[in-house]
Design brief:
Blueprint (H helix, E strand, L loop, with lengths): L1 H13 L4 H14 L2 H6 L8 H16 L3 H11 L22 H19 L7 H15 L1 E6 L8 H11 L6 E5 L1 H11 L2 H7 L2 H8 L4 E2 L8 E2 L1 H11 L4 H8 L2 E8 L7 E3 L9 H8 L11 E4 L5 E4 L5 E2 L2 H4 L3 H8 L1 E7 L19 H27 L3 H15 L6 E3 L8 H4 L5 H50 L3
Parallel strand pairs: 1-2, 1-10, 2-5, 10-11
Antiparallel strand pairs: 3-4, 5-6, 5-9, 7-8
Helix pairs in contact: 1-2, 4-5, 4-6, 5-6, 6-20, 7-20, 8-20, 9-14, 11-20, 12-14, 17-18
Length: 485
């Protein structure tokens, strides 16, 4: 009887038509399976429960004493994104929904403490002392990013991931995209939340990309006619620059492109490093899969608003070749130390695990070590062959292959399409409304089991971001008043 009930609840989880239904069925399963007992028990070898309990009690005492300065000291010195390993994905493998109650209580207490500091009166903490605390502590704590991979036609999967995150109010402010992921990233960066919800409709996506790939023949540097995809990108983004997009939405979007020749590194275009670059051209370059679409020159607006070449005499191609997941650059620019990845790259997806837990045991460790050796030896072999190649074209080809092997394709939280041979049909084929809808629904279902982990691992950084934004608005108002504005 017990097993039958659990089987029925599993079916309810699998056939849930919304996140609310998924959550309700998952919580019911946890209750029936006595997983709630695991949640209530602090102990686990997967994190330092003693440290978290001690830190929680210290924060509670400071709040009880209304000691704002002690709270500031504790939070500035004593928290970081993975304190005591509380962001360990394995802590979400034991239940269908949620994790240890101790961890959730700790996150609650930290967020309440930040609210206490933010609302503290001026006679307790001055405005600029408060602003300094939030700026410094937020920077030290870090934030999360969303990275959208390449994947050609399979990249419409990203639409469902973004839709699920947006519905849960969990879409990170820092987003990167390569190749197909660059299209969705640009959509996020140039649309408000309401506009984005409308744009992610399968019929509208189909309108823009129903013939993204049109065969034109061999012998001209590329086999697909880029006219249709270029027209779609122009219709979507026109001459919007990265700075203009940021001013509209406040989102930090990043698009990666790869050089079409040797002796250049990949570039990550964004409001900070290339504010005047035009998004349409950046996306078009990032989508230029070698031999399918020809590489192109980037464009920007000059001080007079005229369209001019950006990085003259250079052309750029598919961003996923060299920078599918640009985590190191995002870390330097935005203090990113946690990543959510929607991964559809056909070169990576078939080999990635769907489990959050790294398998233990001698056999598993040996397998991982062998895989690491194979990767390192393959990189070395590519370097040797590249050096021996007699032609520029040959050296460039080997350089691209080495870059593909060298990359890291996963993040801290990974959302992947189901491992299914049928996915191959999406990669190079033109979509239908039905196929786009299937990919979006599949992505939403793949995202739902991750949402509570994403919520928990980003709660503190989101609180920092919210209060810091309000403080900076107040700072602007103060400066205007001081200047008689």
């Amino acid at each position: 009887m017990f097993g039958t009930k659990l089987d029925s609840l599993k079916k309810n989880i699998a056939k849930a038509s919304s996140y609310a239904e998924f959550k309700a069925a998952s919580l019911a399963y946890d209750k029936q399976a006595s997983n709630d007992k695991w949640k209530q028990n602090d102990k686990s070898s997967d994190y330092d429960h003693k440290l978290i309990r001690k830190r929680l009690n210290r924060i509670k005492q400071a709040r009880l004493n209304s000691d704002i300065h002690d709270l500031m000291y504790i939070l500035h010195e004593g928290i970081h994104g993975n304190l005591g390993n509380i962001a360990n994905p394995v802590l979400y493998e034991h239940t269908k929904f949620g994790t240890k109650t101790l961890i959730e209580n700790f996150l609650d207490e930290v967020c309440h403490s930040l609210e206490d500091i933010f609302t503290a009166p001026a006679d307790t903490i001055s405005f600029y002392e408060k602003l300094s605390f939030f700026e410094d502590t937020s920077h030290a704590y870090g934030q999360s990013c969303l990275m959208l991979s390449g994947g050609a036609g399979l990249g419409f999967f990203h639409c469902g991931v973004v839709k699920a995150l947006l519905s849960a109010n969990l879409l990170p402010n820092v987003i990167s995209g390569a190749s197909a992921g660059a299209i969705i990233t640009a959509m996020i960066g140039t649309r408000t939340d309401d506009e984005l919800v409308q744009l992610l409709d399968p019929k509208i996506i189909y309108h823009y990309f129903k013939q993204w790939g049109k065969f034109k023949g061999f012998g001209d540097g590329s086999v697909l006619d880029s006219t249709n995809i270029e027209n779609a990108l122009i219709e979507l983004f026109d001459l919007t620059t990265f700075e203009q997009a940021w001013m509209k939405t406040g989102r930090e979007i990043n698009i990666t492109v790869s050089p079409a020749d040797l002796h250049q590194d990949s570039r990550m275009l964004n409001n900070k490093t290339s504010p005047n670059a035009i998004i349409t051209q950046a996306v078009r370059a990032s989508c230029a899969i070698p031999y399918l679409f020809e590489p192109i020159q980037l464009k920007a607006k000059n001080a007079q608003g005229e369209v001019v070449p950006y990085v003259p005499n250079r052309k750029f191609a598919d961003g996923s070749i060299m920078a599918d997941m640009p985590i190191q650059r995002l870390s330097r620019l935005y203090s990113v130390n946690h990543s959510i990845v929607s991964q559809t790259n056909p070169l990576a997806v078939p080999f990635l695990s769907r489990s959050r837990q790294k398998r233990r045991g001698l056999l598993s460790m040996t397998g991982r070590h062998i895989a690491k050796l194979v990767k390192e030896n393959s990189i070395y072999a590519c370097e040797v062959i590249e050096d021996l190649m007699p032609t520029q074209t040959g050296r460039l080809g080997m350089h691209k292959i080495r870059s593909i092997i060298e990359q890291q394709y996963v993040g801290d939280i990974n959302i992947l399409p189901p491992r299914n041979i049928a996915n191959l049909q999406y990669i190079l084929s033109n979509p239908t409304v039905e196929s786009i809808n299937q990919l979006i629904e599949s992505a939403e279902r793949a995202t739902w089991p991750q949402l509570e982990m994403i919520n928990n691992t980003t709660r503190i950084s989101r609180a920092f971001s919210r209060y810091l934004r309000l403080l900076r608005i107040e700072e602007t108002t103060r400066l205007q008043n001081e200047n008689g504005g």
